[in-house]
Amino acid sequence: MTSAPHPPRPVLEVTGLTVRHGPRRRRRTVLDGVSLSVAPGETLGLIGETGSGKSTLARAVLGLVPVSAGTVVVDGEDVTGHDERRWRALRRRGVVQYVFQDPLRSLDPDLTVEESLTEPLLVRGVPRTEAAARARRFLDRVHLTTALLGRLPGELSGGQRQRVAVARALVTEPRLVILDEPVSALDSANRVRVLDILGELRADGVALVFISHDLGSVAGTADRVGVLYRGELVETGTAHAVVNRPGHVYTRLLVGSAPTLRGAPADRAERDRLRALLHA
C-alpha cells in the first residue's frame, strides 16, 4: 500500500504575527495574532478596509516593519529576526517580490523599461545578454510589446506601468509575490488584463498574496480569501465559501455591499443592521 503524497511545503507561513506601533505607553496594536499560509501555485486574497492591517502584514513579511510577536517563514526560512544584511541577501536572491499599488513607486522614473527589468538580474550576476533576453520574455508574459523596452515609466499608460511592475517582480522567478492593491488605480479594461495575468501565474507554481479592499476583484482571482478587520484575521476560506457562506458580520457586510458578487447589494436597512452588530 503506497502512502499518500505529502502536501507541498507552504511558500509563506505566518504564525501568531503581532505588530505594535508607537511609544510604550501609547502603543497601538496594528496586527493581532495573525496566522496564515500560502502554498506553491496558490493565490491568497487578503481583504479589509483601510487601516485593517493589510499593508502592515505585507511589510512585516518583507521585513520592512518590526514584528512584536509571532514568526514569518518564507520558502522554509525563518525571516522573523533577520537583520538588514540577511534581508538584503534574501531580496537579492529574488525569492520574494512586492508590487506596489502605484507602479511609479516601484519603477525608477529615470530607467527605461528594459533597464528596470534587467537591473535585478544584473545585481544577481546574470550576464547582460541573458538578462536582456529574459526581460523580453517577461514583458511578453504580461502581454506588452518589446517596442516599450526603450521607454521611461512616464511615457507609459497606467495599465502599462502596472504590467511592467508585475514583469519586474516576475523576472527573478520568485517563489512568492505580494501585490498591494495592484488594480485599484486601473480602469476596468486594464484591471481585467492584470487579473488575467495573475491567474496565469498559478500554473508556474508562484505563490501570490493579493491585497485589496475590493472583494469582487479578489473573489474571481484567489483560491482562498482571508478577511482582516481591525488587525485580526476574522475569517478564512475558499473564495466560493467566503462569498456564498460568509460567517463573520464584517464579511457579510462586505459581501452585501458588493453587487457584482451576489446580485443586488443588500438594502440600506440590512447594511445598517450589520454595522450595528459589528460595533456592538
Descriptive report:
The protein has 280 residues and is an alpha/beta fold. The chain has a domain of 192 residues: Rossmann fold. It contains eleven helices and ten strands. A six-stranded mixed beta sheet has the order 6-7-8-3-9-10, with helices on both faces. The longest helix has 14 residues. The protein starts with 11 loop residues before the first strand and ends with a helix. The mean pLDDT is 85.
Which structural class fits the helix and strand makeup? alpha/beta
CATH class of the domain at 38-53 and 103-278: Alpha Beta
- Morphology: globular
Low-confidence stretches: none
**Beta-strand residue percentage:** 15-25%
What is the tally of beta strands? 10
Order of helices and strands: EEEHEEHEHHHHEHEHEEHHH
Helix content: 25-40%
Biggest sheet strand line-up: 6-7-8-3-9-10
Gap between N and C termini? 55 Å
Write down the Rg.
20 Å
CATH superfamily descriptor of the domain at 38-53 and 103-278: P-loop containing nucleotide triphosphate hydrolases
Q: Kindly report the average pLDDT value.
A: 85
- Count helical runs: 11
CATH architecture of the domain at 38-53 and 103-278: 3-Layer(aba) Sandwich
| Named CATH topology of the domain at 38-53 and 103-278 | Rossmann fold
Largest sheet: 6 strands, mixed
